[in-house]
Every structure is written in structure tokens, then in C-alpha cells.
Write a structure and sequence with these properties.
Blueprint lengths: L1 E9 L4 H4 L16 E4 L5 E11 L6 H6 L10 E6 L6 E6 L2 E5 L4 E4 L15 E4 L22
Antiparallel strand pairs: 1-3, 1-4, 2-3, 4-5, 5-6, 7-8
């Protein structure tokens, strides 16, 4: 199943914290590794990027980021754009957990949960609500897949 997604982590003064996630680790539940984002002056700009090219192998990413010893968790921002999203979604720490922050003029739409766990969890689709296009019907929370997609 192809399903591209981009993840960007912005966190000042966190090179040491992010270093383990810049290496491949077959023990992780998600696949890949973060690459430092280089700043204009040749230095690193407190950011790391990761690209997923499959839906499989990305669950657990947010839990691993939550578990890191951030020097200042309130300054950590995680941006995620799945292939069908209109824009990046934003996750920030609230009460020790990375939670998606509602962005103005956007809504995340969810499909009903799959019939079995053989299907990977879906993050839903983040759509702009101000484009004057017909938006999909929203699935009630109790019918959504409770498993974390990230």
C-alpha cells in the first residue's frame, strides 16, 4: 500500500535528544530515520525531517517522540502531512502527550474503523474547510479506529 507522508520535528537545542532517531533501528515500530534540516548559513536549524513511502511501519512514531527527554517539551512542534492532506497538521505537547492542535479553517475527517486489525490505522485526512468544495461526511468518534496511526 502506497501512502506517502512527511514528518518534520522542530525543537531548539535538541540535537542530542534526536540523535538516536537519526539512525535506523529495526527494534522500532516505525521505519526510517530522521535527517537534520540544514539552515541557510550551513548550520542545522533545529529541525529534522522524515519521509514515509508506505502506510505500514509508521505507528508508534508519536509515542517514541513523547518518550524522549526534551530539554524544553513546550517548544517541540511536530508537523505531519499525509499524501491526501491539504496542509501539514501540527502536534504539540499538552500534559506530556503529543496532541494534534486544531488549525483555523481545517478539519480532520475520519473514515469508519476497518472491520479487522489487519488494516493499518488511518490518521484521517486533514482538509481545508475554506475552499468552497464539498467536504466528506464526518465519522462519529465512536465509529473511528481507536488505534494510533502515528
Amino acid at each position: 500500500m502506497s501512502r506517502d507522508a512527511d514528518v518534520i520535528v522542530l525543537a531548539p537545542y535538541s540535537d542530542e535528544v534526536m540523535e538516536p532517531l537519526t539512525r535506523q533501528d529495526p527494534e522500532r515500530s516505525w521505519r526510517g530515520r530522521f535527517e537534520p534540516v540544514q539552515g541557510q548559513d550551513g548550520g542545522f536549524g533545529y529541525g529534522w525531517a522524515l519521509e514515509f513511502d508506505k502506510a505500514y511501519g509508521r505507528s508508534g512514531l508519536l509515542a517514541d517522540l513523547e518518550a524522549l527527554s526534551w530539554p524544553n517539551p513546550l517548544r517541540v512542534q511536530v508537523l505531519i502531512r499525509d499524501q491526501d492532506d491539504d496542509c501539514f497538521g501540527l502536534w504539540m505537547f499538552h500534559d506530556g502527550k503529543l496532541v494534534e492542535v486544531a488549525l483555523p479553517r481545517t478539519e480532520r475527517f475520519h473514515e469508519p474503523a476497518p472491520p479487522t486489525d489487519e488494516f493499518v490505522p488511518s490518521p484521517g485526512i486533514l482538509l481545508r474547510t475554506d475552499t468552497h468544495r464539498r467536504l466528506p461526511k464526518q465519522t462519529p468518534p465512536e465509529l473511528r479506529d481507536p488505534r494510533p496511526a502515528w
